[in-house]
């Protein structure tokens, strides 16, 4: 799956897998010209609780790999800064406008085989 896969736009990444959100509130994602390019599901309280219950600390090698993945993203301007480490586990509450980059990051984490639960991606309003 890639960041352009429409199924990923409707999922949260937690516990090492793409999962259907528990909430149903949607937010439009606008492109640079202001046109709607997609939609994401905003995290509700139950989504946050589920993400936190699945959080796990990452081994040092996984944290290093995560930092290398971040470095590979380059200088991206995000509305919500990315967690700098997953050593204690991290939940990233991405702004809907950052969905493409956030999905790309979570996809790279999944492909790298980092410890399930070390990183979670949800969306906030």
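^ Assign residues to that structure.
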């Amino acid at each position: 799956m890639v960041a352009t896969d429409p199924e990923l736009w409707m999922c949260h990444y937690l516990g090492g897998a793409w999962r259907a959100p528990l909430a149903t509130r949607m937010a439009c994602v606008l492109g640079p010209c202001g046109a709607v390019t997609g939609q994401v599901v905003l995290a509700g309280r139950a989504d946050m609780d589920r993400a936190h219950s699945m959080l796990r600390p990452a081994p040092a090698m996984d944290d290093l790999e995560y930092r290398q993945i971040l470095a590979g993203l380059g200088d991206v301007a995000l509305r919500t800064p990315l967690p700098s480490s997953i050593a204690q586990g991290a939940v990233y509450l991405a702004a809907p406008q950052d969905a493409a980059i956030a999905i790309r990051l979570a996809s790279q984490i999944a492909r790298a085989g980092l410890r399930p639960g070390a990183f979670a991606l949800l969306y906030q309003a």
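The two ends are 25 Å apart (CA to CA).
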